[in-house]
Amino acid sequence: MSIAKSDVEAIVNALASKVRRMYVLEDVAPKIAQAIEEQLAAGGYDGLEGAALAESLTKDLRSVNGDLHLEVEFDAEHPTEEEPVEKPKKYNDDGEEIDDEGKVIEEEEAMSPFFAVFMEMSTYVGNGIKAVEVLPGNVGYLNISTFAPPKLSTPFFQHAMCLLQHTNALIIDIRENGGGDSSNGLLSYFTSGRTHYKSMYWRPENRTTKEYTLETVPGPRYNTNQDGDAKRPVFVLTSKDTFSSAEAFAFFMKDLGLATMVGETTAGGGHPIRYVRAGHDAFKASVSVGVSYSAKTGVGWEKIGVPADIAVAASLAKETAHLLGVRATLGKLNALEPASLSPAKRMLLKRSEVTIKELEEKLAKANIGGEPAPDASDAVESPSSESTSTPRVVGGRSEQLPPGVHAINNSDGTTTKIEVKERFFLGIKIRTEKVLKD
């Protein structure tokens, strides 16, 4: 698609205007808008089209304060409609919309085109449930790839928690989770009753909303977090790719004392977004319009991320948490009188002892010299990676390939270069491969 100079001006002007009006930090918004306006005036976008223009705009938007939620996307196949102008609304102290009589309006808001896409895409990835299993030693494992809308994820969380209800410890894996919708439905399985734990400020409406844990959940709670109740160990696996609402889950599980974080510090994206048309049918942008923070401390995780309680390479986080979980199982069994152990418990005890030995040996090999083993994900080059390019043998000669590009040697002696890109769309990781022409 050809982009004229006048189109670029329209894109920058529209985007700058919406950032000034919508960006959550009112004092920073003009600086972000000015950054792309100055680049336009200096000819920084001359000759750029399509994805290259979108990438350049994204870089400049983020240059002011490093907000990773600011992004411009190019999509010529799916035109972006201008968002409708909303009428003024009234809100109560919890940030809920109310009518003239002060009653909460229960009607669902109209679904935006972007959210409709997210709803459909969620169904293609199991509504975020990537894996549910019971690991050796009676340790539960739940892998969540995205937080799907509650309407879709609620029954899936219910079934998952039913399967995991008799485990002695639980691992929740969000290492590759880029966010999505609210994680409150899952978090509430580890609490009891309705508690205000999260607040969110939204600049466009100048309102603050409050989020409460659910009074009831479908299926069994894993822990109640009440004094006197048995509390099973819960571990949340994180990585530098854990982002947005996935970080919210990690942050509040830690903030409320519900789980131990294992892995790496998360990306640091604590600003909820809205998608807007960026002055052209083929360009849309995500603009940070809110900020999330703890109701208890008033602190969030924007730019700083959620640090791990047990810091290990993301590639070793699962084995590390599994080992801790099995040790919890063994400790629970060893606390019982030997004569009271049923045949099944004796079998579990022996299986736990074997599993602990296997995991200790595996982690010892990966941690030679006492240092964490390199994260396996670091070896995968992608456009978002900071790794430098390395020489590859292409067609019998050494050639420097850029990050995210790899070469395949064909049987006829020729080579094919393939560019791999990974990105998140509303929390769902999308991987594309493109054959490059010489």
Question: What would you say about this model in short?
Answer:
With 438 residues, the chain is an alpha+beta fold.
Arrangement of strands in the largest sheet? 4-5-6-9-10-14
Summarize the helix and strand pattern as letters. HHHEEEHEEHEHEEEHEEEEEHHEEEEE
Shape category? globular
What is the terminal-to-terminal distance? 21 Å
Low-confidence stretches: 369-398
What about the largest sheet? 6 strands, mixed
**Rg:** 24 Å
The total of helices stands at 9
Specify the structural class: alpha+beta
Record the SSE blueprint.
Layout lengths: L4 H18 L6 H13 L8 H13 L8 E4 L15 E2 L5 E2 L14 H11 L5 E7 L3 E6 L5 H15 L4 E5 L10 H4 L8 E7 L4 E6 L21 E5 L6 H11 L4 E4 L9 E8 L2 E6 L1 E5 L15 E2 L2 H21 L8 H24 L24 E4 L2 E4 L4 E5 L5 E11 L2 E9 L2
Parallel strand pairs: 5-6, 6-9, 9-10, 10-14
Antiparallel strand pairs: 1-12, 2-3, 4-5, 7-8, 7-13, 11-12, 15-16, 17-18, 18-19
Q: What this model shows, in words?
A:
With 438 residues, the protein is of the alpha+beta class. It is 30% helix and 23% strand. It has 9 helices and 19 strands. The strands form 6 sheets. Strands 4-5-6-9-10-14 form a 6-stranded mixed β-sheet, with helices on both faces. A 3-stranded antiparallel β-sheet has the order 1-12-11. Helix 1 packs antiparallel against helix 2. The longest helix is centred in the last third of the chain and has 24 residues. It is globular. About 7% of the residues have low confidence.
